[in-house]
Write a structure and sequence with these properties.
The chain contains eleven helices and nine strands. It has 318 residues and is of the alpha/beta class. Strand 2 (28-32), helix 2 (39-49) and strand 3 form a beta-alpha-beta unit. Helix 5 packs parallel to helix 8.
Amino acid sequence: MITYNHGPYIAKAIESVLMQKTAFPLRLFIGEDQSTDSTRQICIDYARRFPDKISLRLNDVNFLIKNSSSTYYAAFRSGAKYIAMLEGDDYFIDPLKIQKQVDVMEKDHAISLVGHRVQFVDPAGNPLDNLKSPETPQILTGTDIAERGCIVHTASICYRNLFGPNEFPHYFFKLKTGDFALLLLLCKAGNIFMLDEKLSAYRIHRGGAWSVKSNLEMYLNIAFNLDMLIAENFGPEQNAGMVNQNRNNFRHLLAGALNNSDSQTIDRILGASARIDPGFPEYFVREILFPHLQLQRTSGSHRMARRLSKLAGFLKKR
């Protein structure tokens, strides 16, 4: 469990782990990242009350990469057969969640990770039923993840501990976020099984790691990750899937930038995409720009000539 400034939520997250009913012992590894609110003290209090169940790691500086890596490695080196993930602002809602996931992996050794749907909630914990988990088949492969991205929510993940002390890839903690890379790594060893149940809650609030990012910044971070992961060569199908994921991520952002003739945003998107996919600018012109301009022409837009001239001139400079 990684946590930073989750004061209003962290107790709920910890309690949801402590309520788990399993046929095996559980230990909670918490990485506290020098919060400026009550998070650190709450974690210390719980660690003192449950020393046999909680291992608390207190960072001396606010540095997410250090916090994440030390907490991951502590879990990997603990001898645990399985590892479940939860961030400090989310929580489990079924006391049998982890047991259900472990049961699947105990029965089928071709499964390296078990996920499930999540219940989206607001800051107060009220259900947000208008938000849904992505539709997925029961079995997901590495190619599915490469093409569709992080469709298995972090709060739902329970996986086999396949990583020894020196076996976690060096690039992992250089990524903007590690969830997607972890899914790809685990898919090297097996498939993902999705339970058709809501066993965890994901909280939507302004302080969430992704909630405060604009769509553009979020997808630029994803593009950075994809660029690094493609260089690690997960295989031709996975690499092609990541290229397609990148294209799909940016399609709707480009539509908005085109409507506003926002050449600066278009430039950022094309630059980020071309590092992953040198053919993306050509794809952009053929599949996005020309159809968009044709639609505007058909609708009789009086700004068409100016927009076409501006965008054509912009693309010539690239």
